[in-house]
Amino acid sequence: MFPTNSTNSIFSTFLLTGIPGLEAVHVWISIPFCAMFLMTVVGNVTIMTLIWKEHALHVPMYLFLAMLAVSDLGLSLFTFPTMLRIFWLDARELTFPVCSTQMFFIHTFQDLESAILLAMAFDRYVAISRPLHYSSILTNSVIARIGLAIFVRTLTVQVPLPILLRRLCFCHSNVLSHSYCLHPDILKLSCSSTKINSTVGLFVVLSTMGLDFLLILFSYVLILKTILSIASHGGRLKALNTCISHLSAVILFFTPMICLSILHRFGPKLPAHVYVTMANMHFLIPPVMNPIVYVVKTKQIRDKILKLVIKKGPGESQVTFIT
């Protein structure tokens, strides 16, 4: 137990949940999750390393991509390990400080990713609508200020959440419904008033991911308007193609979250593993898929990776890669 005067709670630990109803096959389920984790680490570290080492990639689009890779890697490092720990060792127990710390970092990297996707939408808008002024608008100092603003905003809204949790009393149950600690999930276990926590949590979601999603939609309305004003069909396709990777990242990040929210509020009662799977898709799929999407769709990154993989000898001919 925690001392009453410090945390005011009865339960000293929380119990995480694997995938309900599939406990007997957790070991087998861990195989694809382990593969996903390795792909996430290799993919995002590769992108960050390439952008850091290659001066030709020190342009706004790739600098924002490096930020996205950092947020994806951070989100994975605070979700995958506890899941694998449950699957392999059936180790479900986390103390309150560890759980609240994990919650803080998961939601922090989640908000960072949302804000970075918004910054990337602004980057695509400037590139398409003001191509001649692109480099003068998005200078390195502007990108640095955008990155700092994202970081400050995220910390400002996320720091109060674990602090406010310390005032709650947990005495009904200590079993969480996911394989990692999330703010709404922890609030459900409290037997004291959560009105302040719920209000702050709702404000955080609406003022970060909710606002970011609306601004991303608005950005693409402006982008589509600009694309439709291009005279040539080929020019329109070329401009639209520059947005495919970013659109894929937006869809991968926001779709599971929106679907999960709709199901929780308006959908029929579904088995617990459906909700858990959709939550896993929101937190685990984007970090795996984003590097793949950007490598497949971005010629510069693909070519740099191929140069690392294929070492040409002094007498070998040049190889042309068709995109």
- CATH top level assignment: Mainly Alpha
Estimated share of beta-strand residues = under 5%
Please trace the helix and strand order, writing H or E for each element: HEHHHEHHHHHHHHHH
> Strand pairing plus helix content: what structural class?
mainly alpha
Largest sheet: 2 strands, antiparallel
* Largest beta sheet: strand ordering: 1-2
How many beta-strand elements?
A: 2
- The total tally of domains equals 1
Assign an overall shape. Answer: globular
Nearest-angstrom radius of gyration?
22 Å
Count of alpha/pi helices: 14
Which segments are poorly predicted (pLDDT under 50) over 5 or more consecutive residues?
A: 1-9, 312-323
The share of residues in helices is over 70%
CATH level-4 homologous superfamily: Rhodopsin 7-helix transmembrane proteins
- Terminal CA distance reads 61 Å
CATH architecture: Up-down Bundle
Average pLDDT reading: 87
InterPro entries: GPCR_Rhodpsn (IPR000276), GPCR_Rhodpsn_7TM (IPR017452), Olfact_rcpt (IPR000725), OR51/52/56-like (IPR050402)
GO cellular component, one term: plasma membrane
Pfam families: 7tm_4 (PF13853)
Family: Belongs to the G-protein coupled receptor 1 family.
